[in-house]
Amino acid sequence: MTSAPGLMGFWITALIILVATVEEAQMNKVKTPDILFPPACPKMTNLKNICELGQYRPRYPDKSLPLTGYSDLRRRANAINRLESWYDICCHEQNAPPDSQILCCAEQAWKQALSQFCVEEYSTMSAAYECCEYKNVARWTCFDSELPNPDYDKKPDYIAPIMPREPGFTFNSDAC
Questions:
Q1: For 139, which of 16, 22, 98, 109 is 20 to 30 Å away at the CA?
Q2: Domain assignment of residue 136, yes or no
Q3: Signal peptide span per the entry (predicted)?
């Protein structure tokens, strides 16, 4: 038979452990970032910001995302990281081409990054992002609507972390 004081001590200990566990979980919880997706299609009107403000737009390193769940946000974050990396190629590694060539490169990067995003969306068991259901011009029109940052403005008081270069993009100047 268990005594009342012994049982009470057990419950107090269990409660302390539970509170400590909940507090630790709250401290280790990663806030889900607000991912600026979809990105706007490059145009002459936003090209200057694409090229000059890239280091001031959000990037999403793995540590900024929850460890489990939210795979849709992770795919969106990866698409943004990939696209920003490829914009850097278009804007800074082409030996100062005319703006029309930079724009053509940025458009290719945008379409390729979003095409890859759609391939990744369809590789999961969850429903794909709505725009991925369309093909060709309809897909690009869909992605270029309801934009969170159409002008590629910078995020105040933000400097992007150094991110590794994303492989997989080669500018095709013959397609311009």
A1: 98
A2: yes
A3: 1-24
Counting beta carbons within 10 angstroms of the beta carbon of residue 163, is it exposed (0 to 12), middle (13 to 18) or buried (19 or more)?
A: middle
Residue 164 in domain: yes
Structure tokens belonging to residue 105: 């490169």
* DSSP structure class, residue 131: G
Question: Residue type at 130?
Answer: E
Among 59, 41, 8, which residue's Cα sits nearest to residue 140?
41
Question: Which residue has tokens 């403000």?
Answer: 53
Q: What are the mean pLDDT values of the chain's consecutive 10-residue runs (176 residues total)?
A: 56 46 45 89 98 96 86 96 97 81 97 98 93 97 96 96 94 93
Q: Among candidates 123, 32, 35, 36, which has minimal Cα distance to 70?
A: 32
